[in-house]
Every structure is written in C-alpha cells, then in structure tokens.
Amino acid sequence: ILIKHGADATKKNRQKWSPVAEAISYGNRPLVSLISHAAREQLRKLILDKTARIINAVESIPDFYIEIAWDFHSWVPLVSRVLPNDVFRLWKVGSRLRLDSTLFNVSERALQRGHMTFYFEGRAAEHTIVMTALNRDKKKFIRRPFRMSDVIRSDLDDAEDEEETEENIDVSMTSELIDVDMSSETVVFNRALGGWLGFRQERHETIGDLECKVFNIDGMNLVTRVRREHLTHEDIRRNKEYERRLRSGGDLEDPEIQPLRRSRSPPVRDVPSWEEYLETNPPPHLGRPLKMTTKTRHVKATAWMAEEFPLEIRVFTDLLTIIAPSGKHVERLIDFLNCKMPPGFPVKLDIPIFPTVSARISFQNYSRLATVAQDLFHVPEDFKEVTESDDEEEELANGNAEADGDGQGVIEGRGGRQHHQHAKEDGEASELSDSEGSAGGSQSGA
Predict the structure, then answer these.
(1) Buried-exposed string 51-67: b where 16+ CB fall within 10 A, e elsewhere
(2) CA pair distance 67, 379, nearest whole angstrom
(3) 0.85 exceeded by pTM
(4) CA-closest candidate to residue 135, choices 348, 353, 400
(5) Other beta carbons less than 10 A from residue 3's beta carbon
(6) Can you tell me the distance from the alpha carbon of 84 to that of 418, in angstroms, rounded to the nearest whole number?
(7) Closest CA to 241 of 409, 419, 422
(8) CA distances from 377 to 1, 73, 97, 437 (A)
C-alpha cells in the first residue's frame, strides 16, 4: 500500500536499516522482490531528474579529457594480492560523455572486470537522454533513449528471466545483512607535516605540473554492522567457507546448488495494535529478535589539493553520477568529494573503500579538447545490438554481480552461485554481462 502511494522504498528507519533489509530479516520473499524493484525504479527516476537539470550546465563546461587511476591496496596481505588496478578514461564533448573502464564494481567479496564503454548524450530540447553501454569483450551493446517524463524501467531487469530473479533474491535471503557507513560528520582536514623533528613544515608536493598542498583527513570512522537473525546454521557455515576461500586465495566457485529459499514463517511476536504502535517511542521492533554485531574502525585518509585545477568538484561529481559504472568504489569517491574540502581540487586521494581495502585515486592527464575524433562516440560496425526481444539479452544478464538491499552483492552464473555482499539500500545495478555494469551512476548505481 505504501509503495503504491509513492512511499520512498529506500528510506531508512531510526536504526538506519532500509525496508528491503527488514523484509529480508523478516523472511518475506514477495516483499523483498517488491521493495527491491520499487527502490531501483525510484533511484532511476531520481538520477534522470538530476540528469535533466545538469545537461545545460554540462554544455557550458569546456570540452575535456581526463583519466582517473585506481590503485587498490589492503593491510591484509592475501587480499592485496588479488586486488585490481584500473584507469577510468573520461571524455566530455558538448552534452555528450564517454567513459571507458575495465573495472566497475569492488567489494570485499566481489570483483567485476571487463572492458566496458559507456556513452551518455543529453538532448535538452527534447527532454531526452540516450544511454549506451558497450561490452567490448563480447562485441555487444545496449542503447536506450529515456524521456524524462517516462516511467523508467530497467532494460537489464527486463533481461532477467524469472528463474534468475529468484536466484538473486535467494542469495540475498541467505546472506548476512551488512551496512558499512563512513561517518563524515566530524571529518577535519589538517595540513600534513614533513621534515625532521623540530624542523617540520607543511608538506607540498608537485603532481604533474600542479603544486599541491597535502592534507591528513582525520575524524573518519567506518562503522560496520552485520545482522544474522534470518540465517540458518547452514547459511552461516556456507558464508564462512566462502570467506575462508577468499582470504586463502582459493577457488570461489560454489559447487553446491541449493534449493531456493522460500518465505519463512513470520516470527512469533506479540504484535501491538496500531494505536499502541503510534504511542510507543521509539516504535517497537516487529521482526525477528536482532542478532547484530557492530564494529567501528578509525580510518585515515590523505588528500592532495591543487588550487589551480581547471575543474570544480561539484561539476565533476555530477558527471560521475550520471556516467560512471555502479560500484562501491565509485560511491565512496563521490561521498568523499561531497565532503567539505579545503580550496582546490583533490588531484590525488588515498581513501578507505572498506575496512580492509583502500584506494589511491589520481586525477591525471587533464587536457582541453580542441578537436575530437569522429569515431569517439561511434559503435563499431561489428558490434551486435541487444534488443528487448533478443534472446541473447538473457545471456548478457547472466553471471552478473547485483546488489540488493543493505549488503547483498552476488556473482551468479547458471552453473553455480558465488556469494556475497556489499552495497546499501539501492538494489543497484543489474549488469549487462558477467563483466558489465549499468551505465548510470553511483549511489548504488542506476
């Protein structure tokens, strides 16, 4: 009833859990499906609405090219061994954007790689945008025009058949609910010092041809909350086995094919009347008794600020929101860019992505574009377009990593399922293929 009347399907409660997380905890399978779908649809509409507002602003920016280098590292040696590197290559020409990437999702238990290209074209006069995603490994692409007033449906959701959708929900219902929150309310930027004791001075470094001031970022905490009240002993055993394989660098393939988890019996609880519920402050918990652990870890970060950089942080954040592939690494970067920063642009950042994984991100090789290659936004002739009626769309959707709710990432295939987690409430990103991401953005991706 609430969703039918326009309620926000991603709105969190006082304990900062989303509706889909509570539905998973309760064990109501149809409700998990309903809320996840509604959350994705609402997110896409919000992104399109924001896109419509910034098309004109994008056109006013001089055309440019820039690279965003990602270097992931961890204090856990065996994890560092499997962490990837990547370079985002971004072009802005008029109201068009192009981004090339070989990495579009990073979590503690999921890595997605694949040579992908995303095109974005804004047509302000027609109130329309055109999104194109190319899988250069498979030589296939999807192109979709979206009119701002339309009710947006996910083309990639359409690609999923009923069986695959059920598998995605099943993994969500057999995985831990994980919420990783970066607390930035008390973040302070302090000048980094260098030199010998007694002769320490504020650090300056030259990156490219830019003079940068180096800042230590203090007051940051990563708060990780894990809920397990909805899991059976067998679920917990399988999850621990997967984690053991990951940390040992072993095979992540799960040979066990389990029957789908159906809705669980409702928890045996005394349900208050509507009047009693409204009169209780805070409202009573109606689901299963919570089994939750919370860990808080203080994290350090560093920023190299250049006051002469030609791009504004706000503008660059908007561009990433509409063109960058969905993934927690992109989401963390955007969250960081939205913090109140010292003057200038952070041409290099060393920030936490997860409690055990950090990334050094460098913005490099910026240049103004006087001329543009004719084929910059061209789809190669030997690429095959995937249409809504194309049987291969099911193949493209197969093997995806998907994030549903507060922390259920999945790497799935027909032959088996590879668990698990990380992403919040968005139900973000059904991907184009086993090495493919959505063309739309962050904050859990469109």
Answers:
(1) bbebbeebeebebebbe
(2) 21
(3) no
(4) 400
(5) 17
(6) 19
(7) 419
(8) 44, 33, 9, 18
DSSP secondary structure code for residue 280 in this structure: S
CA distances from 349 to 182, 215, 306, 364, 387 (A): 16, 10, 12, 12, 40
Interval 104-162: pLDDT, tens: 666 655 667 788 899 988 776 666 778 888 998 889 998 887 654 443 334 434 444 45
Q: What is the mean pLDDT of the chain?
A: 75
Q: Is 139 helix (H, G, I), strand (E, B) or coil?
A: coil
Terminal CA-CA length for the chain = 25
Distance CA 158, CA 138 (A): 20
Q: How far apart are CA 113 and CA 86, in angstroms?
A: 9
Instruction: Determine the 3-state secondary structure of 403 from DSSP.
Output: strand
DSSP assignment of 369-392 equals -SS--TTTTPPPTTPEEP-TT-TH
Per DSSP, helices labelled H in 13-152 are: 19-26, 29-59, 77-80
Q: Please state, in angstroms and rounded to a whole number, the distance separating the CA atoms of residues 382 and 385.
A: 10
Helices (H), 116-191: 155-159, 162-173
